[in-house]
Structures are given as C-alpha cells and as structure tokens.
C-alpha cells in the first residue's frame, strides 16, 4: 500500500501480467477503483510482464514562497515512491508516485531511446459520479452523471462529486513537452486517458494528478499542481509584480461627460494612465491593432500605427508609476520574429505581453507556450495568454512570469456574455488549473452594449456588486478592468473597494460554496481581509463566520452589496455601501445576495 504522510490518502499498487494498476482512496472513501496504466511503444506494450527491480521511498516536507499564487507560502509535504521497472522486452524505465494527504499524482520517466510512446490508461471510478468539466470559451459541462455523458471527451480539469459527498478533480501538472492528455468517457464509469509522446519531447510525462477534498472549496485551496512543478527557474524574479490593469479594447467609442471620446490613440492611453496612477491600478493593457490590423501580415509589432506613440506612452506611464502591457499574436510573431519583437518591447519599457490566437496542434501549442514564456522571462516580461490556450498546470511555479490565462468564458468575450451560473462554476473547475483572466469588473452594465462601443458585443447579465466580488473570488495574476475610468468614478464609493484591494493577495480561503450555486471566499492582504460572495440566478442569504480573524483585534467592516431591488437582468446597477460595522473573530455575518448578485466586505483593524 502507498500512503500519504498522515494516512489521509492511500493507493493500492497491483502488478499483473497485463500491467500495473493504482487505486485512489481518500479518508476511507474509494474514489478511483483502479487506474489501469497502459503504455505502448509503437505496437509493443511497455507494461506487460513488468516487474519492480528497485524501489525507493522517502518523505518530503518543505515550504516555499510563491511569487504568483493563491497563497504566499506553500507547504509541499508528500510521500514519494520511486519505482524502477523492467518489462518482458528488457526495457527499463521508472514510475514515480507522490501521495499527498489531499492529493495523488504519478508520472513515467524514460531514459533516452524511447520513441512513439502512447499512454492509453483507463480510470475506473468507483461509482456513477456527477461531474463538471472545462468547456473552452463556454459554460462548463455539468453537472452530468458518468452514465449520461455518452462517448464524449471531457475537457481538463474534470471535477467529481461522489455518492458519499466527497470531491475530487482530475488534471495534469507540468505540461511542458507533450500535448495535454485527453479524457474520453467510455462507459461503465470509466475514462480513457489518451496521450501520444515522442522522442522529440522530454524524458518524462506530465503528472497525472488527482486533487482530493471533503468540500468543493478544498479543491480550490489546493496547491497540488504547483507543488508538482519544478522550482522557479528565473534567477531574480523580483521584477514580476501581479496587479490590476486598465484596458483600452472594450472602451473604444466611449464618450465621457466632458465630450472626450476614447479610441486607439496615445491621448486615450494617457487618460487611462492618469486614472490608473490615481486609483491604485498598476498597469495599462494596450490590446489588438495598436501596431496595425492584428491579422494583417504587414502589421509589424516593432512599430506602432498612426496615432499611437508607444515610446511617448511608455515614458508617460513610467513617470506616473504605471506599467504597460502590449498585445501580440502569432501572425506578427511569426512574420517579424518573436525574440526580435520581445526585445523591442523590453527596450521600450513594457512590463508584459498579452499573447493571443496561437495556432498549431496541441503539442505545438505546448512547445510554443514554453518558448514564449521563457523568452519573455529573458526580457523581463510577464505574459497573459488568451484565446483558448494550453491549460494552466501549476507551471507558474517554474515560470512565475506566466501570470494568467483566459482559460474559460471571459465576461462579454466571444461576442456573448455568460450568465451568473458560470462564475459560480468556473472557480471549482477552470480555476483549479491556475490563474484566470475573465475580464471582470464591469460598472456600466445598463449602457455598455448600447453606447457606441464596438468591442462590447452583447448585453452583460449581472449586478455591479457582483462585478466587484468577482475580483476577490477569481484568482488571477493580472485583473483586467474592462470599463471606462468615468464609469468607475460614477460609482466611486463602490470602486473604493477595488481601489483598496492589494495588487496581489496573500491567501485564499473558501468559506462556503456549492458548485454552480454560490461561493464565498476570504483573502488576506497583510492585516486586512476581503470577503467576496457570488450566487447564480437565485437570490440567497448566507451566514459567514469570521473565525479567520485574529482573536485579539477588533475590525471595521465595509459592505459593498446588492440593494433590496437589485436583479441581474432587471436592475443591475442598484447597490449600497454600509460602513462602520465593527466585527471580530466571533462574528457571524448575514450576507444577502440578489439573483445573480454579489457581496464584498473590506475588513481592517479598527486602529487603521
């Protein structure tokens, strides 16, 4: 039996003539009856007549500091089982298994000489579980039972709820060398895990990872994926600074009360920078078309189009203490040379890159993602990937300049908007993989679609209080604020919650939640806390215990919440702010959420 450090999770390792199988048991509940490991090299099975010729076991317990993570400090404690294998054809390779108290993971390691390896393993679940799955730039799949899903692919991550009320998720960690594996429902509560590899890749597979929890919030809090990645490879990562960004793209065409109309030009960018500098916003994201039509082969990212003066903008931003993030896509990178472009961005003084519309096969996307991230690190550039990229896989530990990815249905993107149930599902599915950029923080919910803004393609269903709460609930390395500065100032008392948020939080704690229904999250920033709650289309009342506060302190709490008449379709912008509420560790607060609504609480010591 393989066992975690404190015995919370176990696995039975079984070797037969046909191969190897591993079970997954958490707190006495069998989640996976067996994972039947099936590897082929060409037509030959690698795991038939296999035997263990060497076995090494050890216990690891270390702590490391995260640069871009849910938690500033990460504990990495597990039991390691390193098994050297030999098969009937005389081939030798290794199976490495890590047992965490709330996680299980394994990978294969190959010496040189292995070619055309295929993983066709099968995961046999112990029941007909409900599950939810990643679904590209759409609402997630689920809840659906295994028996009702048919012979369909389930996108990673996949989150399960057992018949006994336990939760677990299947994903992979450290996707660097091969295409991501594919999970296909094959009936009888079984998933086929399919992945093709080749000698051109690395010498080990990605980690096949199972995140385990008693509640769905346990899965979100997990640091399993980052712990399965290698330590940071950037010698001095002090230049990597997560934060919030203003964004020009969705604001084009907006006319302010003083008659100013925003467009793709430097005068607009300076107006964004002024607002950012005055309101604790760290960056400006200049999106597509700044160097010409984004899909035109002649658009050169090392020179700006008419009306956009990048050098002037960069100098102005630097003087104001604001960083600039520049858009780039495959068309320009391939035509004019990726490294040449990134070097130019760096010389201009850019802080990062938003990379979009990567082309190629899944494996090519994996390799290109790694190449882009490493080159960005060379030139001290952070990077945010958009447009259905390769899934996050804890890789931000190794390359923390990879600050976020779209990886989901971004609000008002893909020419449609999501409904409230999406934002209370994505944290339990998409966000398990890593930091998300979902374009939250809309304030002009009533008028954005009808006010001559060509990049706002659909009406946005939601409440303005929920838009603030999303910035607490959703974990990301760069939050891109999609609205006009003037819209934030119109609701200055509500924007004050965003203004007082840190550039990056220190911790992430799920207070309560149910997949697809609601979620409440508490995040610390030094001595202060921010609590965010969201609901689906149903209004609800929650009771939240503040037992995470220090016992010897009194706190002042400001509530940013839906009004009594708020509704995500009928009355989106109604809200209220309640100040001067005194709370402590023993307080239990009532939070009322309108249909599709949200609630945020800023909590700080009274003496502040």
TrEMBL record:
<keyword id="KW-0378">Hydrolase</keyword>
<dbReference type="GO" id="GO:0030246">
    <property type="term" value="F:carbohydrate binding"/>
</dbReference>
<dbReference type="InterPro" id="IPR013785">
    <property type="entry name" value="Aldolase_TIM"/>
</dbReference>
<dbReference type="InterPro" id="IPR019563">
    <property type="entry name" value="GH97_catalytic"/>
</dbReference>
<feature type="domain" description="Glycosyl-hydrolase 97 N-terminal">
    <location>
        <begin position="2"/>
        <end position="231"/>
    </location>
</feature>
<dbReference type="InterPro" id="IPR014718">
    <property type="entry name" value="GH-type_carb-bd"/>
</dbReference>
<dbReference type="Pfam" id="PF14509">
    <property type="entry name" value="GH97_C"/>
</dbReference>
<keyword id="KW-0106">Calcium</keyword>
<dbReference type="InterPro" id="IPR029483">
    <property type="entry name" value="GH97_C"/>
</dbReference>
<comment type="subunit">
    <text>Monomer.</text>
</comment>
<dbReference type="Pfam" id="PF14508">
    <property type="entry name" value="GH97_N"/>
</dbReference>
<dbReference type="InterPro" id="IPR017853">
    <property type="entry name" value="GH"/>
</dbReference>
<feature type="domain" description="Glycosyl-hydrolase 97 C-terminal oligomerisation">
    <location>
        <begin position="505"/>
        <end position="603"/>
    </location>
</feature>
<dbReference type="InterPro" id="IPR052720">
    <property type="entry name" value="Glycosyl_hydrolase_97"/>
</dbReference>
<feature type="domain" description="Glycosyl-hydrolase 97 catalytic">
    <location>
        <begin position="254"/>
        <end position="406"/>
    </location>
</feature>
<dbReference type="GO" id="GO:0016787">
    <property type="term" value="F:hydrolase activity"/>
</dbReference>
<protein>
    <submittedName>
        <fullName>Glycoside hydrolase family 97 catalytic domain-containing protein</fullName>
    </submittedName>
</protein>
<dbReference type="Pfam" id="PF10566">
    <property type="entry name" value="Glyco_hydro_97"/>
</dbReference>
<dbReference type="InterPro" id="IPR029486">
    <property type="entry name" value="GH97_N"/>
</dbReference>
């Amino acid at each position: 039996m393989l066992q975690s450090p404190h015995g919370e999770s176990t696995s039975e390792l079984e070797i037969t003539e046909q191969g190897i199988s591993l079970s997954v048991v958490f707190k006495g509940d069998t989640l996976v009856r067996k994972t039947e490991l099936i590897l082929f090299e060409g037509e030959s099975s690698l795991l038939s007549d296999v035997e263990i010729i060497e076995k090494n076991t050890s216990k690891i317990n270390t702590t490391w500091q995260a640069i871009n993570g849910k938690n500033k400090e990460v504990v990495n404690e597990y039991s390691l089982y390193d098994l050297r294998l030999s098969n009937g054809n005389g081939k030798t390779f290794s199976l490495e298994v890590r047992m965490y108290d709330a996680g299980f993971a394994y990978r294969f390691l190959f010496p040189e000489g292995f070619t055309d390896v295929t993983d066709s393993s099968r995961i046999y679940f112990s029941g007909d579980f409900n599950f939810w799955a990643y679904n590209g730039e759409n609402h997630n799949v689920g809840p659906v039972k295994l028996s009702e899903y048919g012979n369909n692919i389930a996108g990673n991550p996949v989150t399960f709820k057992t018949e006994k009320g336990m939760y677990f998720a299947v994903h992979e960690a450290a996707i660097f060398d091969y295409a991501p594996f594919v999970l296909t429902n094959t009936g009888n509560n079984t998933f086929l895990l399919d992945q093709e590899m080749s000698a051109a890749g690395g010498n080990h597979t990605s980690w096949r990872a199972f995140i385990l929890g008693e509640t769905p919030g346990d899965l979100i809090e997990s640091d399993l994926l980052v712990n399965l990645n290698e330590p940071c490879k950037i010698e001095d990562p002090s230049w990597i600074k997560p934060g919030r960004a203003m964004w020009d793209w969705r604001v084009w065409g907006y006319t302010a009360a003083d008659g100013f109309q925003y467009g793709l030009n430097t005068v607009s960018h300076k107006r964004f920078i002024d607002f950012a500098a005055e309101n604790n916003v760290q960056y400006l994201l200049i999106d597509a078309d700044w160097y010409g039509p984004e899909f035109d082969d002649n658009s050169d990212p090392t020179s700006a189009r008419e009306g956009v003066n990048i050098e002037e903008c960069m100098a102005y931003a630097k003087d104001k203490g604001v960083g600039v993030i520049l858009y780039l896509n495959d068309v320009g990178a391939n035509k004019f040379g990726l490294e040449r472009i990134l070097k130019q961005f760096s010389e201009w003084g850019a802080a990062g890159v938003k990379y979009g519309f990567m082309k190629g096969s899944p494996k090519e996307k994996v390799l290109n993602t790694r190449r882009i991230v490493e080159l960005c690190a060379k030139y001290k550039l952070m990077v945010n990937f958009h447009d259905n990229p390769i899934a996050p896989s804890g890789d931000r530990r190794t390359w923390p300049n990879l600050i976020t990815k779209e990886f989901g249905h971004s609000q008002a993107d893909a020419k449609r908007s999501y409904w409230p149930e999406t934002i209370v599902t994505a944290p339990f599915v998409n966000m398990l993989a890593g930091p998300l950029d979902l374009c939250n923080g809309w304030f002009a919910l009533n008028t954005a679609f009808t006010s001559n803004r060509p990049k706002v393609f659909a009406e946005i269903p939601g409440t303005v209080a929920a838009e603030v709460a999303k910035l607490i609930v959703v974990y990301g390395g760069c939050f891109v604020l999609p609205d006009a500065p003037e819209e934030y100032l119109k609701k200055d008392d509500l924007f004050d919650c965003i203004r007082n948020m840190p550039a990056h939080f220190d911790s992430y704690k799920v207070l309560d939640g149910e997949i697809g229904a609601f979620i409440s999250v508490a995040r610390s920033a030094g001595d202060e806390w921010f609590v965010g709650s969201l609901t689906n289309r149903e209004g609800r009342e929650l009771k939240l215990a503040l037992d995470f506060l220090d016992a010897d302190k009194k706190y002042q709490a400001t509530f940013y919440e839906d009004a009594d008449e708020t509704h995500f379709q009928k009355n989106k912008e109604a809200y209220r702010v309640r100040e001067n509420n005194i709370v402590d560790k023993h307080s239990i607060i009532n939070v009322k959420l309108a249909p599709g609504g949200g609630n945020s609480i800023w909590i700080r010591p009274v003496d502040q």
